[in-house]
Amino acid sequence: MAKFKIKKGDMVQIIAGDDKGKKAKVLQVLPKSAEVIVEGCKLAKKSVKASEKNPKGGFVSKEMPMSISNVKKAEGDN
Hints:
By secondary structure, this protein is an all-beta fold. 0% of the residues lie in helices and 42% in strands.
């Protein structure tokens, strides 16, 4: 398993993809697939069935994993 310099809670800058240029916090690092989940980036709409927690159901925006090569540590955050 590879080691990465980016850890959970780090501020990163997106360097590729639809969210290029955004700065956000890392929510999770997935080392086996070399991916990260970044707060508010690469959002996908997921359909949700009605439940006690969400009585109406509908759609929920959820962050999806992106390749760790598409992010870099934000300047000033060492």
